[in-house]
Specification:
Structural class: alpha/beta
Helix content: 40-55%
CATH class: Alpha Beta
CATH topology: Deoxyhypusine Synthase
Radius of gyration: 19 Å
Number of domains: 1
Number of helices: 14
Largest sheet: 6 strands, parallel
Order of helices and strands: HHEHHEHEHEEHEHHEHEHEHEHEH
Length: 292
C-alpha cells in the first residue's frame, strides 16, 4: 500500500489523467481534513467487480458518511456475501451463456442460481420489515436490514449497517430488489417501499453539514441524487468525479464537475476535479492515496 501511495504521489507532474488523479487524492484528503460530510456514490457494475472490497474497507473505517447507490449495487453486494461470481471475457458467446443460465456483466459472470438464492434470502428480510415498520419501508431501512443479516466483511452493506452509515437508493425498484418486491406484494398487498421516506433524512444531513464533499464514481441516478440534494445548501464544497462517460451528448453521466457549478450542485468556490478513466483501475490508486 505504501509503495502504491508513493507511486500516486509521483503522478503530480506526470501530466494528463495521472496529474488529475493526484489532484483528486489531494481533494479527497482535504475534504476529510476539513471534516466535510462525505457522500460516496457508485454504480452496480462496480460492486460486481473487485472494487466491492475497497468500498467495504472505506465503510469499515468510516471514511464516508453516507452512500448513494443503485438497486443493482445492493443486490450484487448481498448476493456476493452468499455466493461467488466468476471471471469470464468480454467476447463470449452470449447465446451459449444464456443456455447455461449465466449472466454477463462485461467480463464478469453472474450465474442465475445466485438470483434464486437472492430470492430465498430476501424474503425473510421483507417479512421482518413488514411486521416491524408498519408495512411501508424506506430503501435505507431495507439496505440496513440486508447488511445486518450478513457476516461478510467484504460487504459494504455489512459495514454500513455495523457503523450506521445510511445507504440511500432512489432507484430501488430498478433491479432484482424491485422484482422481488413485486413478488412479495402478491402475498402482502399492502407492503411497499417508499423512496420519499428517505428524503427527509438525506435533506437533514445535507442542511446540517458545515461542509460537504462527494466522491462520485460513474454516473446515473447515484451521481445525480448526491449533487441534486446539495442544491439545498449551495452545492458541494468538494467533489471528485471518476468517469468513462463523455460530455458531448449532454448526459448527466458524462457531465464534468464544472457543469454542476452552473446548477448550484457544486459551489462556485468548490475544490473539484473530473478524472477520465475506468474506476477499477483508478479508484484503487485513489484509495491508496487516502489518509485513512
Amino acid at each position: 500500500m505504501q509503495n502504491t501511495k508513493t507511486l500516486v504521489s509521483k503522478f503530480k507532474n506526470a501530466g494528463f489523467q495521472a496529474s488529475k488523479l493526484n489532484q483528486a487524492v489531494e481533494i479527497a484528503n482535504k475534504m476529510k481534513e476539513e471534516k466535510a460530510t462525505i457522500y460516496f456514490t457508485f454504480t452496480a457494475n462496480m460492486v460486481a467487480s473487485g472494487l466491492r472490497g475497497i468500498f467495504a474497507g472505506l465503510c469499515k473505517r468510516k471514511y464516508v458518511d453516507l452512500v448513494i447507490t443503485t438497486a443493482g449495487a445492493i443486490e450484487h453486494d448481498f448476493i456476493r456475501a452468499h455466493s461467488n461470481y466468476e471471471l469470464g471475457d468480454f467476447n463470449m458467446d452470449d447465446a451459449q451463456l444464456h443456455k447455461k443460465e449465466i449472466n454477463r456483466i462485461g467480463n464478469i459472470l453472474a450465474p442465475t442460481k445466485n438470483y434464486v438464492l437472492f430470492e430465498e434470502k430476501i424474503k425473510p428480510i421483507f417479512e421482518k420489515l413488514y411486521k416491524e415498520k408498519n408495512k411501508t419501508i424506506s430503501p435505507s431501512e431495507l439496505a440496513f436490514e440486508m447488511g445486518a443479516s450478513l457476516k461478510d466483511e467484504n460487504s459494504f452493506l455489512y459495514w454500513c449497517a455495523k457503523n450506521k452509515i445510511p445507504v440511500f437508493c432512489p432507484g430501488i425498484t430498478d433491479g432484482a430488489v424491485g422484482l422481488q418486491t413485486y413478488f412479495y406484494k402478491q402475498k402482502r398487498k399492502d407492503f411497499g417501499i417508499d423512496v420519499t421516506k428517505d428524503m427527509n433524512q438525506l435533506a437533514s444531513i445535507t442542511l446540517n453539514a458545515e461542509k460537504t464533499g462527494g466522491i462520485i464514481l460513474g454516473g446515473g441516478i447515484s451521481k445525480h441524487h448526491a449533487i441534486g440534494v446539495n442544491i439545498l445548501r449551495g452545492g458541494f464544497d468538494y467533489a471528485v468525479y471518476i468517469t468513462t462517460a463523455q460530455p458531448w451528448d449532454g448526459s448527466l453521466s458524462g457531465a464534468r464537475s464544472s457543469e454542476a457549478v452552473s446548477w448550484g450542485k457544486i459551489s462556485e468556490k468548490a475544490n473539484h476535479i473530473t478524472v477520465d478513466g475506468e474506476a477499477t483501475i483508478l479508484f484503487p490508486l485513489l484509495a491508496a492515496g487516502l489518509k485513512l
